[in-house]
């Protein structure tokens, strides 16, 4: 194991040096996530979506800023609050909406639902419902890419894996085992903790030590570390970019805390009685979308009219996604047996699909 270098400081104003077009795309991506989530909540209330639904509203800057700091083929993996990451990665909202509705056109063929968005073509590896379970899987992804890059292609480690996790996952054994393995194996990966202050109804300082400075969790395992304002997409990019590049260069892991807030409940059935209206209002005033829109309108070539046009375009796009998803059929019953193993029918089922009416 190599020794830990000095943590890379966030480079000020990296995002501010990017062209207008890039920042407008970030705004467009954040608006898409917000609108997608608003319409998902409506669909859920209209009983079009089964199971659980965890809404990402408030946290948009994290997914968009972090993805912007990565290459397209850097693997990403997350927990069940996964719609924002998939959309930021470029998964078509049609395929995301169809997944929520349980249709074959969904990004997991309608068989995973809200908590299991996958898009291998965009190196998006889920969507995982067990708190912390994505951490060892993230280690596996990082190990696999490094093995491919260094051993098979006889080159340098080229990929950085980002494993997103909630603050609640910090208390899981799997997270600590994963951090230890990443440290001992020198894996090029980042554990990106989206600290939204709560694990269901439990405030972070009731369940986690050093809630005031989560980045210290990295120290025991010899990882690089950073603390990032997750309500400001430019700051997310400025914080993530140098750490991503350092992980890639040195093939070393890092842990970052992204301070954010979820505006809605834990899931659709949460009345949010464990926090005050004043607290919610405080964060709503920090809104990541308003912040970037204001920046673009005051510092760049963007105006109210362009903003309205973008909002309108986004609404149309999501409306069309819903229409497309509703027209997609439910998966056939035979689909129960596909995508279970890498080999179509797996090692146990033989070479053809079992008949559904077999006893
Ligand atoms: C191992 C495990 N324990 C408990 C649960 C139930 N559970 C689902 S979400 C959650 C809270 C997780 O909070 P956090 O990691 O902060 O993510 P957030 O919901 O804030 O995005 C819990 C306890 C679970 N899914 N898996
Ligand atoms: Mg949380």
Task: Summarize the SSE layout with pairings.
Elements: H1 20-45, H2 60-68, E1 76-77, H3 83-89, H4 93-100, H5 134-152, E2 161-166, H6 173-184, E3 189-195, E4 198-199, E5 202-203, H7 204-207, E6 224-229, H8 233-250, E7 254-259, H9 277-284, H10 288-299, H11 304-327
Parallel strand pairs: 1-2, 2-3, 3-7, 6-7
Antiparallel strand pairs: 4-5
Helix pairs in contact: 1-2, 1-3, 1-10, 1-11, 2-3, 2-8, 4-11, 5-6
This protein binds thiamine diphosphate and magnesium ion.
Question: How would you briefly describe this protein structure?
Answer:
This protein has 11 helices and 7 strands. By secondary structure, it is of the alpha/beta class.
Question: How many H/I helical runs?
Answer: 11
Can you give the helix content as a percent range?
A: 40-55%
Write down the secondary-structure element order: HHEHHHEHEEEHEHEHHH
What's the story with the biggest beta sheet? 5 strands, parallel
| pLDDT averaged residue by residue | 94
Shape: globular
CATH homologous superfamily annotation of the largest domain: Thiamin diphosphate (ThDP)-binding fold, Pyr/PP domains
Radius of gyration: 21 Å
Quickly give the structural class.
alpha/beta
> Under CATH, the topology of the largest domain is which?
Rossmann fold
Number of strands: 7
Percent strand: 5-15%
CATH architecture field of the largest domain: 3-Layer(aba) Sandwich
Low-pLDDT runs: 1-6
